[in-house]
């Protein structure tokens, strides 16, 4: 088989796979422009008449805007704190190599391996004692567990930096935190952006922790608002799909503008190493 034929076969296979994967997305989007009856009659057919009532009803509901605001606040604070804690821990582990640090690194690795679901109950009981359950602050604290993931990725990248930078900072009289903040942090910006993209998408789309932590309707995140659109007995599926699409749009836009950082940030450390 020639190279040209292989490329054609591969292209056809990839296009077919992409179309197959896109079917659920097409199903959701196309039914947001239908009524319940139209969807039941022809779920995969294009709408015979463009019905915008679902979007008008969703966008006129103040609860959706409140949930977006809650999600933005939680995501922003959680990701910033995760990156700061993860980068600070990685800096300490890379700069100060000792037996104690190796033990701490092994403990952190164990924390990374243990499923987060297994620690939900003890963490929840701890937050109950501090009266942080059903608060956005408590939810942000729960997301700080993601700092371990940030730590491992940032540590690998940070090891590629020349140690002479730290020594030069010390000779200039800078303290440990000053070296980290003014010298190291700007140099690890590519991996910070990459990890930030990963963590933003995780926190924004997470369903488990908000379900466990949040019960007050005014504090719901956008994912909980989507879940709330499903009724116990009957569900307006076009309305549910419309809420899902509205909740998905910000992450689609975010991914389109940041996808290049995902690959470039991860490869930068390998190229330097």
From TrEMBL:
Subcellular localization is given as: Cell membrane
> How does the protein associate with the membrane?
Multi-pass membrane protein
**Example GO biological process term?**
transmembrane transport
Output the Gene Ontology cellular-component terms.
plasma membrane
The residue ranges crossing the membrane are 7-29, 68-91, 103-124, 136-158, 179-204, 237-257
Q: Where is the ABC transmembrane type-1 domain?
A: 68-258
| Alphabetized InterPro entries for the sequence | MetI-like (IPR000515), MetI-like_sf (IPR035906)
Q: Which SUPFAM superfamilies match?
A: MetI-like
Is Phosphoprotein among this UniProt entry's keywords? Answer: no
Question: Which terms are listed as keywords in the entry?
Answer: Cell membrane, Membrane, Transmembrane, Transmembrane helix, Transport
Where are the annotated coiled coils located? none
Membership in a protein family: Belongs to the binding-protein-dependent transport system permease family.
Q: Which PANTHER family match?
A: ABC TRANSPORTER PERMEASE PROTEIN MG189-RELATED, ABC TRANSPORTER PERMEASE PROTEIN MG189-RELATED-RELATED
The name this protein carries in UniProt is ABC-type transporter, integral membrane subunit
UniProt organism field = Isoptericola variabilis (strain 225)
